[in-house]
Write a structure and sequence with these properties.
The chain has 268 residues and is α+β, with helices and mostly antiparallel strands. The protein has 5 helices and 11 strands; from the N terminus they run αββββαβαββββββαα. It has a 7-stranded antiparallel beta sheet with strand order 1-2-3-6-9-10-11. Strands 4-5 form a two-stranded antiparallel ribbon. The chain has a two-stranded antiparallel ribbon with strand order 7-8. A hairpin with a 2-residue loop joins strand 7 and strand 8. It is globular, with a radius of gyration of 18 Å. The structure holds manganese (II) ion (2 copies). One manganese (II) ion binds next to helix 5.
Length: 268
């Protein structure tokens, strides 16, 4: 029995390509792999999140993380933006200084406040592999509103699976339109997107996903002038974010269920 179960779960783990990461239970959106020759889709696994890094863009393609009450806490914001030294040797390592005076925020894909459980976990959110150039009005407007809303769902007992990234080229910050940050090759995305699966309670994993599971997605232009717009006005279907990015979200969810929850437009 034990052997049979081990084999069963072993096969599932391989098929899922989740590498045993709790942050990839719902899938690996771009089939990223941890081989340094895969420079535009390089998988990095951390205890706090998983990500696909793009060496051509010098930003992550996506960051994926589980969020439930166990990840929240009172650890103070560390603010220790720093290069990620776990990138393959020889790869350019983006530094906080690349963003200085660019007119763009050092924007977290996974919110710092989503990792309040410990100083170490909060510190992990400040690695530059979790950061993209984000227009201040996006970051400090609808983007942060939606982050806060997600944590409210968690405080109500939900467990979330979240994937976020930046799509396209060129955003408008405080100093105007840039395709890459000045004096560096860090791509400025044209929009920021996020897809969220809302499970009723922690620990349900794939078995907790049904056709009735709530999925919320947003696509927010990476530009100024939107600070006071409601995050809800940027909602989109998961299908439309898949079309925008070319990724397959929640690919470990059975296809018939995926089809239903990805086509819907959240209206709560
Ligand atoms: Mn932010
Ligand atoms: Mn999908």
């Amino acid at each position: 029995m034990v052997i049979a179960l081990t084999i069963f779960f072993g096969v599932v783990a391989l098929a899922d390509l989740n590498y045993g990461s709790v942050h990839l239970i719902m899938g690996n959106p771009s089939q990223a792999t941890a081989t340094s020759t895969n420079s535009s889709n390089y998988l990095m696994l951390k205890p706090e999140y998983a990500l696909s890094y793009n060496r051509e863009r010098n930003i992550p393609n996506w960051v994926s993380w589980q969020l439930n009450a166990a990840w929240l806490g009172d650890a103070p914001r560390q603010d220790n933006f720093r290069p990620d030294l776990t990138l393959p040797s020889g790869w350019y390592r983006v530094t906080p200084a690349n963003y200085t005076n660019s007119g763009f925020d050092r924007g977290h894909l996974m919110s710092s406040e989503d990792r309040g459980v410990s100083v170490a976990a909060n510190s992990a959110t400040f690695l530059m592999t979790n950061i993209i150039p984000q227009a201040p009005d996006n970051n400090r407007g609808p983007w942060v509103q939606f982050e806060t809303y997600c944590r409210e769902l968690v405080k109500d007992g939900k467990e979330l699976y979240i994937i976020a990234g930046g799509a396209g080229f060129g955003g408008t910050g405080e100093k105007g339109l840039l395709e890459t940050l000045t004096n560096s090759k860090v791509t400025v995305p044209a929009s920021t997107w996020k897809v969220v699966l809302v499970l009723d309670k922690p620990g349900l994993r794939l078995q907790g996903v049904t056709e009735k599971t709530r999925a919320i997605a947003v696509v927010i232009p990476n530009k100024q002038g939107i600070r006071h717009q409601e995050w809800r006005s940027f909602r989109a279907s998961v299908d439309s974010v898949e079309a925008l990015t070319g990724y397959d979200f929640f690919s470990n969810v059975p296809q018939p269920v995926q089809s239903v929850i990805e086509a819907g437009l959240d209206n709560l």
